[in-house]
Structure formats: C-alpha cells, structure tokens
Amino acid sequence: MASLQTPSLLFSCSSIMTINSEDLVQELNRSLDTIQLDNNHVLKAQTHDVLYKPNESSVTIQLYAILEAVADRIQVHNNVCEQRKDWNALLLNSINMITLTAITMVGVAAAAATNEVGAPLLALKLSSALLFSAATGLLLIMNTIQPSQLVEEQRNATRLFKQLQTQIQTTIALGNATEKDVKGAMEKVLALDKAYPLPLIGVMLEKYPKKFEPAVWWPSTQFQKKNEGKAKSKKMEEKNGWSEELEMEMWDVVEVVKRKDIKDYDRLGNIAMKVNKSLAIAGPLMTGIAATCCGFVGNGSSFSALVTLMAGSMAAAINTFEHGGQVGMVFEMYRNTAGFFNKVEASIESTLEENDLEKRENGELFEMKMALQLGRSVAELRELASKCCSCRMEGTDIDEFASKLF
C-alpha cells in the first residue's frame, strides 16, 4: 500500500509545482509590464518637461517653423540649379550646332557659285543668313541671363541655406533659444532670399555691373558697430576666453585679410568681369557679321565668303569658351569669395569693438572658428598673426594670404 501511495503523492506534488510555476511566470510578466509602463510614463513626462518648457515652447515652435522654410528653400534652390545647368548645356549645344550648320551652308554656297544655277545658291544664302540670325538672337538671350552664373548663384544659395539649417538645429538642440535667435534666423533667411533671388525678371542680379561688388548675404544688422572705433587696448585679466594677446592676434588677422585676400579677389573679380563682358559682346557681333556677309556670297568675289566663314568660326569658338568654360560662373565664384572675406572682416571687427567681454562670443571658441574658416589650425592662425606683426615692425608687406582654402 505504501508503494501505491508514494507515486500518487509524487504526482500531486509535481502538479502543484507545475501550477505554481505557471502562476509565478504570469505574475512576473504582469509585474514587468507594469514596470515598463511606469518607466514609459516617467520617460514621456521627462521628455515633455524638456521639450515643452513653458518659457521656451513658443520660441522653439517658431524656430521649427523657420527650419521648415529653410529646408524648402534648400530643395527649391537645388532644383533650380539643376534646371539652369540644363539650360546652359542645351543653349550652348544648340547655338554651336546652328552656327556650324550655317558655316557649312556658306561653304557649299561658295563652292556652287561657279555654277550658273541661281536658285540653289539663293536658297543656301538665305538659309545660312537665317541660321546666323537665329544664333545671334539666342546668343543675346544667353549672354543676358548667363546660365552658368545663375547655376553658381543657386549652388551658393543651397550651401548657405544648409549652413543656416545647421545653425538653427544647433540652437534648438542646446535648448537655450530666445526671441533674439528667432529674429536673427528670420533676418538671415530674408537676406539670403535677397542675395540669391530665384526669378529672372525684375530681380535678377546684374550680370555686367559697372563695378565689381562682393556678394552680401548676411543681414545689415548682423555686424552693426557697437562702439565707435577700436576697443581701447588695456591691461586685463583673461575673461570669457579673451585676453589682450588674443585681441591683438585678431586685429593682425583682419589686417592680413584686408591687404592680401580681399585685395587679390577684387583684382581677380574685375578681370573676370571684363573678360565676361568682352566675350558677351564679341559672340553676337561675330554671328551678326556672318549673317550680313551671307548675302554677298557668290557675287564674283570670294572675300565675302571668307569673311562669313571666319566670323562664324570665331563665333563658335567664342561661345564655346564663354559658356563651355563657364566664365560667368568664375565671375560669380570670385564675387562670392570676396563676400566671404568681407564677412570674416566684419565678424572680427564687430566682435572686437564690443568692449563688454561678457557680451562677446567666447574668445577661444571664436579663435577656433576663425581658424577653421580660413583653413588653418589655431597654431597656424597665431603664427600668421605673429608674422604680420613682425612685417609691420620691419615696414615690409606680408607675403602670405590669410586663407588656405581659397
């Protein structure tokens, strides 16, 4: 009997253990779910407190709205850039094909001038004249809008809007945004819209200005002078990362930027502007001469045919050099680079002219930013300032540019 009762007892114990194990697992799962829900609730509450602080929520929302507008501007400028790049290739190839076809027809007409059949000769002369006239009209349109220069404008706008996008994202991430940041971001967006307009009619940038002017894409209020003249040199303890030595270093950097970089890019910009103007006049002039001389081909003289062929060939070469070589893009590149150096100069001067060191950007951070913008390390920037100081004491001109990027 004992042997019969033992298995029964063991079976009852195992059943109880199985039931208790299942209940225990279910209870543990319910506990884990409760803990997870509690943790999620706490996390959401903390996130809400961080992102939706009563004093910062409206400012953050405004910055996000500006950020959306900036992202849209980036996409629009990028699309327009691709469109105008296609314009340049299409117009360049079309004008060259029209010009070369007209040249071929003039050559055929000159060769057929010895025959006494007048109708084919007249047809060739009229056709070539029409083709040269069409090439002249298209060249005038292309030289007026300068597609390669338009493409470079949109490239610069896209890059600068991306830079602004990053700045706004950084401001939001730091979590210390103010109404001043919102106003500054709005002003920068509007300044970029003005500096790099999208429409062609009415607001297009002047492609052949009388004087070379660097690009300006920052608000007029960004670098307003806070004090008249330079900050007075004074002995001071290091404060907010600034020291007397760092101030002198920045003034020396400004001096190099003015004397070397800005001056050099003004010179290059003026050269590119004059070359662009000359080519824009020469191309249509050559096709116009060719169109006029077509009417005299085959009148017993080979001179008119020779002039037509030479003018047409020169027009094709000039058009290829101007628009295939993208002289307008080079001019815009110099204009934008000169603007960059003006911005560096204005940034340093406006910072140094603020006598209250606490209102300035941290000195060490500002020095690092200037070094990076000029393609240098902090040590190289200090070396440049030291070299500028030595040249000034010796009465010689420094032979080094501030920037290593451009």
TrEMBL record:
Annotated InterPro entries: Chloroplast_duf
Domain of life: Eukaryota
Transmembrane segments: 90-113, 119-141
Keywords: Membrane, Transmembrane, Transmembrane helix
Record flagged with keyword Membrane: yes
Keyword Transmembrane attached: yes
Protein name: F-box protein
